[in-house]
Fold this protein.
Amino acid sequence: MSSRGKKQGSKIKPLEVVKYGHPALRSKGRKVEKIDDSIRSLAEEMIVTMYEEDGCGLAAHQVGRSIQLAVIDVMAAFEDRPSRAWIEGRELELESLMPLVMINPEIYPVGDEKSTEVEGCLSMPGLHDEIERPSRVRVVCQDLDGQTLDFEAEGLLSRAAQHEVDHLHGILFIDHLPAESLQEHQSLLRKFQAKSLGF
Ligand SMILES: [Zn+2]
């Protein structure tokens, strides 16, 4: 997901973010079976890329790798779009969870409340629209140590987690738009597509 703010000072080089039209974005990601050094360094490179691109989330698919791995950091956007998180009913210091690495995540809505907010995507720069999603979700995933992380989230963290987990299943945020809104974005989408296909 796209956002604002940047962290600096890393020597790790950012990766190229693929754009709409790249086949990886429409594939279902393979499960990560073993969390080894290659997964750890990919996660690090993805975090650096997310900061470099001013994003608040990035899925492996967006760097051309179709596996169940995504990273999130919602701190830079906190003032405009706050988040909250809980583990076993106890609220967490949000910063302790960031940057968040989600491996093999599963996501479940909590309650019936929905919220509509603007989203963007690093694979579709300049395209923004309002998307309705469940307000609160439970996320169950593994961290880089292979430990299970089971938390509930609201606000931008909830939305970013839903957006990134969608990516891991080949779903893009524009898939949630009604047909008439999607129509308004067609010319921009065609431009991304032409570039991805090398026209
Ligand atoms: Zn995205």
Remarks:
- The domain at 23-196 is CATH 3.90.45.10 (Peptide Deformylase).
